[in-house]
Specification:
alpha+beta
Length: about 130
């Protein structure tokens, strides 16, 4: 039974992405995950898990952009973006629910209005026949 290597540490690459990643943070290092067949950036200064991000599209400039965007210095901006996105989603859910309720109410009103045995004179009272 052979030993299977899951991670291969990347020390250099054709476009010097690894060096540019190190320039952002000297604690970053790049590995290739042979099981998932993707590149990953890890941070050696993290104690429990060194995992930072995955590079599904390969080791290219998009990795640098993603690392710059997710830097700890940008934490407040990222949190604000998440809050704004959540608020928009919540507002959309409320709007859809109100639209459905309005449609159903209109449908019930039109149905009742079309019936001959429905008397609208006391439609808004709490008196029941």
């Amino acid at each position: 039974m052979g030993f299977i290597v899951k991670y291969i540490k990347i020390k250099n690459d054709a476009f010097n992405i690894n060096e540019r990643i190190k320039a952002l943070n000297p604690n970053y290092f790049v590995v290739y995950n042979t099981q998932d067949q993707r590149y990953e950036v890890h941070n050696s200064s993290q104690h429990t898990s060194t995992f930072c991000i995955t590079c599904d599209s390969g080791l290219n400039c998009s990795v640098l952009t993603k690392l710059r965007k997710t830097k700890i210095e940008n934490l407040q901006k990222i949190m604000d973006e998440i809050d704004e996105s959540n608020q928009k989603r919540e507002d959309e859910i409320k709007r859809v629910a109100l639209d459905k309720a309005e449609f159903k109410a209109r449908e019930m009103f039109d149905y009742a209005k079309a019936r001959e045995d429905c008397d609208f004179c006391d439609a808004y009272t709490t008196t029941w026949c």
